[in-house]
Design goal:
about 20% strand; alpha+beta; 6-stranded antiparallel sheet; binds zinc ion
Length: about 350
C-alpha cells in the first residue's frame, strides 16, 4: 500500500516567496512491518552482499554506560513483549507472569563488553530505482547503510555507507555475522520493514533561516488559524507542519530544533554537507499530526502491540531524536558526517 502525506495546510512559499528558492525534495521512506528480501529496499532487512566480500566491523572505542546485550537478546525480549501486548488480558492482569518477568530481566541483563572488532548491523538498503532523485557514484544502483549498534564518542551508533552495483554481485552472503555487542536497551536495532517511498517538499527549519524571516514566520503562525481545528497552531506552526517532514527519509533539510546549526563542511574539500539519510525515533507524535499519511489515520484493527504503528523500526536515537547522515556533494569518496537533532 502506498503512503500519502496530506497536502500541507497552506502553501507557505506563496505567502513567503523568500522560501521558494529554498524548497528541497525529501523522500519519506514510511517503513512498515514487512519481510523484505535482499532484492528489495528496506529498513532493518537483509543486505545484498557478495559472499566473497568482507563484512564490515567497528574497531572504535565504545561508551558502555550499561552492559551491552546480544542481538538475540533484543529480538527475544521484543518478541516476548509483543506477544504479551497482543494477548487479551483481564482488567488488572499483569502484562507478564513471574516466569516471563524473570526471562525478560535475564535478556536485559547484558554481558561483559567484548574487546575485539564488532560486526556491523544492517540499518537500511535503498535501491536507487525506488528513491526519486537519489543518485550515487557512477555505476551504483544501491545504497547500503550499516552501523555499529553501540555508543561512540559522539554518543551515536557509527554508520558505514556502501554504494554498490547490484548487477555485479554474484554469489550472496547468506549468514552475515551479527554484532557481538548491542547497546543495552536495543535502541539501535531496527526491526525489518518494507518501504513506501514518497517524495515531499521541505523548507529549512527556522534555525536555518535568517532571523528576520524566522521571526516573521513565528508571528504569522501565532496569528494563523489552523484549517484542521479550532486550536491556533501557534508560533511553531511553520516549524512543525510546514518545514521538515518527520520520520525516516532521504534528502531534504536537517531537522534543526533544539540547538543552533553549526557549520558542517567536508574536511577533505570544504564543501557544505548535505543531508543524505535521516533515522527517526518515530514517524509521528502529538506535534506532527498533519504529517500522518492518509492510509495510517485509522488505528489498525485489534490490539496495538509493543511495536507501535507510529514507529515500526523501533530505533531510538537519544531521547527520541533523529540521526542524520550528511554527505559531501563533491565526492562520494569524501567522509560522511553524522549529527543528532
Ligand atoms: Zn563501534
Ligand atoms: Zn568533500
Amino acid at each position: 500500500m502506498a503512503r500519502t502525506t496530506p497536502p500541507r495546510p497552506v502553501d507557505i512559499a506563496a505567502l513567503f516567496p523568500e522560501l521558494a528558492p529554498l524548497a528541497r525534495q525529501a523522500v519519506r521512506l514510511h517503513p512498515r512491518p514487512g519481510e523484505p528480501g535482499v532484492h528489495e529496499s528496506s529498513v532493518g532487512g537483509p543486505l545484498l552482499w557478495p559472499a566473497d566480500e568482507q563484512w564490515p566491523v567497528c574497531t572504535q572505542p565504545h561508551d558502555h554506560w550499561s552492559p551491552p546485550v546480544s542481538l538475540d537478546d533484543v529480538r527475544r525480549s521484543r518478541a516476548l513483549l509483543e506477544a504479551q501486548w497482543l494477548r487479551p488480558r483481564k482488567a488488572g492482569e499483569n502484562l507478564l507472569d513471574p516466569a516471563q518477568r524473570e526471562l525478560l530481566d535475564r535478556l536485559r541483563a547484558g554481558h561483559p563488553a567484548h574487546t575485539g572488532p564488532n560486526p556491523l548491523l544492517p540499518v537500511a538498503q535503498l535501491y536507487l530505482r525506488d528513491i526519486p532523485g537519489l543518485t550515487g557514484p557512477e555505476g551504483a544502483d544501491l545504497l547500503q547503510v550499516l552501523w555499529c549498534p553501540l555508543d561512540h564518542d559522539d554518543a551515536l551508533p557509527a554508520a558505514h555507507l556502501v554504494w554498490r552495483d547490484s548487477r555485479g554481485v554474484g554469489a550472496l552472503l547468506t549468514d552475515p555475522p551479527a554484532p557481538l555487542d548491542v547497546d543495552h536497551y536495543g535502541h539501535y536495532v531496527p526491526e525489518p520493514c518494507a518501504l513506501h517511498p514518497e517524495a515531499v517538499t521541505e523548507y529549512p527549519t527556522p534555525l536555518e533561516l535568517p532571523k528576520e524571516l524566522a521571526d516573521r514566520l513565528h508571528a504569522w503562525g501565532e496569528a494563523a488559524r489552523h484549517p484542521e481545528g479550532d486550536r491556533g497552531p501557534g508560533g511553531a506552526y511553520y516549524q512543525y507542519e510546514l518545514s521538515v517532514a518527520p520520520g525516516w527519509k532521504v534528502g531534504g533539510w536537517g531537522p534543526w530544533s533544539f540547538c543552533d546549526p553549526w557549520p558542517m563542511e567536508c574536511p577533505d574539500c570544504g564543501a557544505a554537507y548535505r543531508p543524505l539519510f535521516t533515522v527517526d525515533s518515530g514517524e509521528w507524535d502529538g506535534g506532527s499530526g498533519s504529517w500522518i499519511p492518509l492510509e495510517d489515520r485509522q488505528p489498525p484493527p485489534g490490539p496495538v502491540g509493543h511495536r507501535r504503528p507510529s514507529d515500526p523500526p523501533m530505533v531510538q536515537i537519544g531521547r527520541g531524536y533523529t540521526l542524520q547522515l550528511y554527505v559531501c556533494p563533491t565526492s562520494f569518496d569524501h567522509p560522511h558526517y553524522a549529527a543528532m537533532q
